[in-house]
Design goal:
InterPro entries: GTP-bd, GTPase_Era-like, P-loop_NTPase. This is YfjP family GTPase. Keywords: Membrane, Transmembrane, Transmembrane helix. It comes from Streptomyces thermoalcalitolerans. The structure is a single chain. With about 700 residues, the chain is an alpha/beta fold. The chain is built from 18 helices and nine strands. Strands 1-2-5-4-6-3-7-8-9 form a nine-stranded mixed beta sheet, sandwiched between helices. Helix 2 crosses helix 18, helix 3 packs antiparallel against helix 10 and helix 12 runs antiparallel to helix 18. The protein is rod-shaped, with a radius of gyration of 51 Å. The two termini are about 90 Å apart.
Amino acid sequence: MTAVTDQDRTEHTEHTEQTEGVVAIRSNGPGGQETGEDGIEHFQAVEDAPEAGNMEKPEKPEKPERIERPERPEKPVNAEEHRLSASAAETAHATLAPTRVGHDDRPPRVKDDDPPSRTEPDGVWDDGLIARRVTEPATTGTTPLLPAESRPARTPTVPPLTYDAPLQARLDALRELVGLSRTRLDSGTLAEASRVLDEAAARRRLSGQHTVVAIAGATGSGKSQLFNALAGVAISETGVRRPTTAAPIACSWSDGAASLLDRLGIPGRLRRRPLQGPEPDPQLRGLVLVDLPDHDSAVVEHREQVDRILALVDAVIWVVDPEKYADAVLHERYLRPMAGHAEVMFIVLNQVDRLPGEAAEQVLDDLRRLLDEDGVALGEHGEPGATVLAVSALTGDGIGELREALGQFVSERTAAARRISADVRAAAQHLRPVYATRRGAGLSEEAREEFAARLADAVGATAAGEAAERAWLRNASKACGTPWLRLWRWCRDLREPPTGRLPLRAQPEEEATARQRVEQAVRTVADRASAGLPAAWAQGVREAAVRGAQGLPEALDELAARTEEPPGRPLRPGWWPAAVLAQAAMTLLQVVGGLWLTGQIIGVMAPNLGVPVLLMIAGIVGGPLVEWSCRIAARGPARRYGQEAERRLREAAAGCGRARVLDPVAAELLRYQEVREQYARVLGTRMQ
């Protein structure tokens, strides 16, 4: 290693053409690029042609011969001094970086151990390490050129994107829909809707004056060539190597798009500016064009980048060629699923210069036919839809028409909102199977009545009413019957169990039967309520019914025990006291007649058998007659009493079933109705 000393340090210079009153500008970007704000490199044309007679073209200096220097003893330099010397040299070069000066006539001093490749043909030596090349002022009195005035670093303020009232209402409805559905639908089903909400919120915070348009296409379709044709300069690499585009490259026609490109994940080294003339192109102002890798690339990372950026851009230009315009991958994977985004799509048939005669129109017609089969609406005759064009990026045919269509599209400033609207519509269509029904949701009155009737049968409401009717008749017979008959019945009741009463406890078989009836009633009403509902909501209705059915048989048994007899004494008809008095009179006649006959037999009273016998016959015949009349008269009140008992038990069973089963089922149906209304608002329609 040769030691570096102050005497041996070589001064780096660069040869420039000296012009009078002209400042030469060179940046650190490739190909004459100037790095401006937003980290985007500007492509500018530098006018270096001087007027004739104003300056003379300097002669190219001859390559200097090697300069022989006397051998000097090398001063040993340790590693630390070598590092400090190199650092000082780099600091000096960085200090001189902003200044471009003329070149003197002295030949450059070349070290003996310098390689030949470090000396350029024009005599300029470049160390290849310093980003900005500098030259040394001439010592022969040449005035150095002033440094170029750098572009001021300013951050442009652009207004954020705004959504109109209908789109904002649909976004709010989608947000409410997702919130109401989280308890019934899994996160995977709601993932697309959540992503659309997140992207809509993120896009709204960014510039509303820019339109991000991606150029996508298959391998060899010429999308990068079309990208360069629109930019007016070779930005994206083209060639026969496949894949050529390895990373997305962006080109912005105006400032303020840095945040949009950050959202796409495009680094600053891949951001460019189009070729700018004396006046900026107002036609495409606000356009941010992104060249994507091939969507059918053999590299997985390229396809993933395409899918990721296509979900974020405002619009897309699909570039197809005459050979692969009917490719199944393009139509089945992209065009068909994105048919709802037709308003923000351009379909460009490139390389039409390869088609002879009218073949271009025939291929274009066939392309329109395929798009129609995919469900992509075509924007023809003033209708909204995709724009289909035929161009040749190589010859420039159709580029002007495409540029005009893009300019009109960008100038409307509605592409981002239309893309979000299409995303919302696509998310709603994705959720349609979990919200749309074949009929109106709800539980009909007929189903409610059937459920109440099944519960009443399970609790034995009919039998309870009949038992109450028999009990009322028995009480009437006791009150209006003869004492002798009541005495006989009392003796019979002592020997046999009572009949015609509600059992306090059902037999095990009857309890099992009643439980099965209750479960069957619950299943029936759940099936009726969930009929026609989407699977997730039908499952929710059935689960609500099953939860309510837990403990329902026990609750019904307890309810039946409480309503076995009506509170208080049963109401008695008005004829009841008269019947009791009549029966008492008949008994009194029997007693009087009997005592009279007994007195005559003993001899206490004078013999007269007619009157006491008549009295006893009247009492004996009249008592049963009164009892029979009371029984006939008691049938109506007893029937009403039994019906009232049955009604109370039915109402109690229906109330218990309604509180435990029907109300939870109705709550689930109401929630489904709410999300269905929100889903209709997302679609922007009214669902029946």
